[in-house]
Specification:
Strand order of the largest sheet: 1-2
Mean pLDDT: 89
Radius of gyration: 19 Å
Order of helices and strands: EHHHHHHHHHE
Distance between the termini: 22 Å
Number of strands: 2
Number of domains: 1
Strand content: under 5%
Number of helices: 9
Structural class: mainly alpha
Oligomer: single chain
Shape: elongated
Low-confidence stretches: none
Largest sheet: 2 strands, antiparallel
């Protein structure tokens, strides 16, 4: 019997999660040393190829995110048009801030490779600016994660109303959306609590998104609903 389900959204979601986690979690923790300009710059210089791979991974992740949005839009557009449009809108709205994150991530390479005359900076000034750009990137990631949470809410609603995916996955996705958006707001308003809130929100978000990825890969979702 011909399989009437498609696993393309699940594949795109998984690849987006892998490339995003590599760039945002692994690369950030590997290279950015809080309150230590010298150590941060030395790590970038010593492992520049890996650092560049993180930039490429971030760019690929954003492309996959857009493709995921359109693939889910096609699935839910007929049955749940409002949710389909809203989830796609939130994904597309995240792109400008995500682009800023990419520029800030690339800035240390520009600063550290430029000749002193190019920017009129001494080496220690260039190193400080490179460090500051990564610090600003962390803040930009916190801001864009609001949209990473918001898009999950209409996605969760579409899952709950359509019946294409078990309802428990919809509830977990809703919890993940609230966790992302809530953590971003707390990070912005009460940064002193980020050490407490960050790990908990990440755990909730991971459970929600991984449950959706697992189902979309294992069972798929009805095709031809656009």
């Amino acid at each position: 019997m011909r399989d009437t389900n498609t696993r393309i959204p699940g594949i795109l979601y998984l690849l987006n999660a892998i490339t995003g986690a590599f760039s945002i979690v692994f690369i950030t923790r590997t290279f950015f040393v809080p309150d230590n300009v010298g150590a941060t710059v030395e790590r970038i210089a010593a492992h520049e190829t890996l650092y560049r791979a993180g930039i490429a991974s971030d760019l690929i992740s954003q492309v996959l995110f857009v493709l995921l949005g359109f693939s889910l839009y096609r699935v839910f557009n007929k049955a749940q048009p409002a949710q389909a449009r809203l989830l796609l809108l939130f994904i597309l709205s995240s792109l400008p801030i995500a682009g800023v994150c990419l520029v800030l991530q690339a800035m240390p390479l520009v600063l550290l490779h430029a000749t002193p005359q190019y920017f009129g900076l001494r080496p220690e000034q260039a190193a400080s600016l490179a460090f500051a750009s990564l610090g600003l990137r962390n803040t930009a990631i916190a801001l864009v994660s609001v949209f990473w949470g918001l898009w999950l809410l209409p996605f969760a609603s579409a899952v709950l109303k359509s019946g294409y995916v078990p309802r428990v996955v919809g509830y977990l996705l809703a919890a993940a959306g609230v966790a992302y958006a809530g953590a971003a707001l707390i990070y912005t308003v009460l940064p002193q609590l980020r050490g407490m809130v960050g790990p908990a929100s990440l755990a909730v978000a991971a459970v929600g998104e991984l449950s959706a990825i697992a189902w979309l890969l294992a069972k798929g979702i009805p095709r031809g609903k656009a």
